[in-house]
Amino acid sequence: MDPYGLRRVVSPPGVLPQQADRLDPTLPLGEDELSIEVEALNVDAASFRQIEGSVGKDPERIAAEITRIVAGRGKLQNPVTGSGGMLIGRVRAVGPRHPAAGTLKPGDRVATLVSLTLTPLRLDAITAVRPEIDRVECRGEAILFATGLWVRLPDDLPETLALAALDVCGAPALVARHARAGQRVLVLGAGKSGALVAVQARENLGATGQVVAADFSSRALEALAGLGACDQLLQFDATDAVEALARVEAAGGRFDLVVNCASVAGTEMAALLAVKDGGTVIFFSMATSFTGAALGAEGVGKDVTLLIGNGYVPGHADLTLGLLRRHPKLRALFESRYAR
Question: pTM to 2 decimals?
Answer without folding.
Answer: 0.84
